[in-house]
Automatic annotation (TrEMBL):
InterPro entries the UniProt entry points to: YtxH (IPR024623)
Domain of life: Bacteria
Keywords from the UniProt entry: Membrane, Transmembrane, Transmembrane helix
Residues that span the membrane, as ranges: 6-26
UniProt-recorded name of the protein: YtxH domain-containing protein
Pfam families: YtxH
Length: 114
C-alpha cells in the first residue's frame, strides 16, 4: 500500500466515522439512559425465557457459574488422577524394565566385542 492509498483510506475512515456518529446522534429516538435501561430489560427477559432452553449445567450469573465450573473441574481432575495413577506406576515399571534390558544388552555387546 502506497502512502497516498494509506492516507486516502485513513481520511475515508475518519470521515465515515464522523458522519455515522453525527447521524446516530441526530436520529436516536430516546436518550442514552433510557436506551441502556431498555437493553437491560430485554437482556434479562431474554435470558430468563431461554434459561430452560439453554439447559446450562450452571446458572448464567458470573460468580455462581465460576464456582460451579471450579468444583466440576476439581472433581474431574481428582477422578482423572485416581484413574491414571495406577497406569502411570505400571508404565514407570515397564520403562525401568526396558532400561535394565538395554543396559544388559549393552554389557553383552561390549563383552562380545572384547
Amino acid at each position: 500500500m502506497t502512502k497516498l492509498d494509506a492516507k486516502s483510506l485513513i481520511s475515508g475512515l475518519l470521515t465515515g466515522i464522523a458522519i455515522g456518529s453525527i447521524t446516530l446522534l441526530l436520529t436516536t429516538p430516546q436518550s442514552g439512559r433510557s436506551t441502556r435501561n431498555l437493553i437491560k430489560k430485554k437482556k434479562n427477559t431474554w435470558f430468563s425465557s431461554r434459561k430452560s432452553e439453554l439447559k446450562l449445567p450452571y446458572p448464567i450469573e458470573g460468580p455462581e457459574t465460576l464456582d460451579g465450573m471450579t468444583r466440576k473441574v476439581q472433581k474431574t481432575l481428582k477422578r482423572y488422577k485416581q484413574e491414571v495413577k495406577p497406569e502411570m506406576v505400571k508404565i514407570e515399571q515397564q520403562a525401568q524394565e526396558i532400561a535394565d534390558a538395554i543396559a544388559l544388552l549393552n554389557k553383552q555387546i561390549r563383552k562380545s566385542d572384547n
